[in-house]
Amino acid sequence: MDKKEKILIVDDEAGIRRLLHLKITKAGYPCETAESAERALEKMQAEQPELMILDIKMPGKSGVELLPEIKAKYPDTAVIMATAITEAANAINCMKNGADDYICKPFNLEEVVISIDKSLEKRRLELEIREYQKRLQQKVDEQTIEIRRLFLGAIEALVFALEAKDKYTAGHSRRVTKIALAIAKELGLPKDEIEDLRWGSLLHDVGKIAVDQSIQNKTEKLTPVEYEHIMIHTQIGAGIVKPVVNDKVVEMIEHHHDHYDGTGFNQTISGEDIPLGARIMAVADAFDAMTSHRPYRPAMAIEETLGEIKRCVDTQFDPVVARAFLKISASLPVVKNGQAAAKPLKAQKSKVSQK
Ligand SMILES: [Fe+2]
């Protein structure tokens, strides 16, 4: 049975090319020859052989010079260096640079075939191991994505359960997410940043699980201590999601109440140092909070809310983000429909929560 791997013999001496060609063809390998490094590169471009026999010493570009080029461009091609017995040290050096074996002139043709068989067997095993590792890595990646999706889905369900319990906040995170994503698209954010923002917005208030309900639902003005207590939800929320989301999402949640001018509660950063996702969420969150009923005040009218956002451009809100929101606000369903906050939760489903 003919062996299938192709072999390219690169040697400047016609006699050696003929001799090797005859022996290797007889051993069952399809075989081609090239008389120089340049010609070998041309042949490699047309069709890559699985193995190359490469003469170390050739006029023009030598085999020693050609080897790293071949290994860089065609890493799956096995290379056997052919050398005069007096240059064996050179050949051993080539093996350090990626050659698979070396054969010495004058050739023992049986040994040449053994070297070819051995090198091709090694190559086959390496390819099999690489393919196996690739499949294994693929499986690990798939499992990681699935585990992450399940975790995120569980946390998202927790957020919705928390919100559903409270008529004032029902559906808040989903509406904030819709507005935040619309702003992000208007700003031309790339896909991966939009995906981070989606998770940041959906989970931004998960830390409210640690907030005292009686303080959250208080009908009078909050005391500074009570306000401070409510604001711990940014840190707690960041801590809850940290094991399952990337750092960007964690930082968005941590800073979603930061004011652009740095005057927010216990703020450590300001302006552009606040993650862009957090600056977007700040506008979306404020809009939805103002247009929703709260225990201490009724929902604000849309026009009044937009006026309030305009008033806080450059102070509470990033001017670029706020202007993007104001520009698209009229076309947003949550804005057009007015008091979207009053809609029942079951009418608004998210992909993950349905599972
Ligand atoms: Fe919040």
What do you see in this structure?
The chain has helices at residues 14-26, 37-46, 63-73, 88-96, 109-164, 172-187, 191-203, 213-216, 224-241, 247-254, 276-290, 302-311, 319-328, 333-336, and strands at 7-10, 31-34, 51-55, 78-84, 101-105. The chain has 355 residues and is of the alpha/beta class. It has a five-stranded parallel sheet with strand order 2-1-3-4-5, sandwiched between helices. The protein is rod-shaped, with a radius of gyration of 34 Å. The site of fe (ii) ion has 6 residues, from loops.
Bound molecule types: fe (ii) ion
**What coarse outline follows from CA principal-axis ratios?**
rod-shaped
- Give unreliable regions as ranges: 338-355
What is the strand arrangement across the widest sheet? 2-1-3-4-5
* Residue share in helix: 55-70%
* Proportion of strand residues: 5-15%
Structural class by secondary-structure content: alpha/beta
User: Helical stretch count?
Assistant: 14
| Number of DSSP E strands | 5
Order of secondary-structure elements? EHEHEHEHEHHHHHHHHHH
The averaged pLDDT comes out at: 89
Q: Largest sheet, described in full? A: 5 strands, parallel
The N- to C-terminal Cα distance equals 55 Å
> What is the rounded Rg?
34 Å
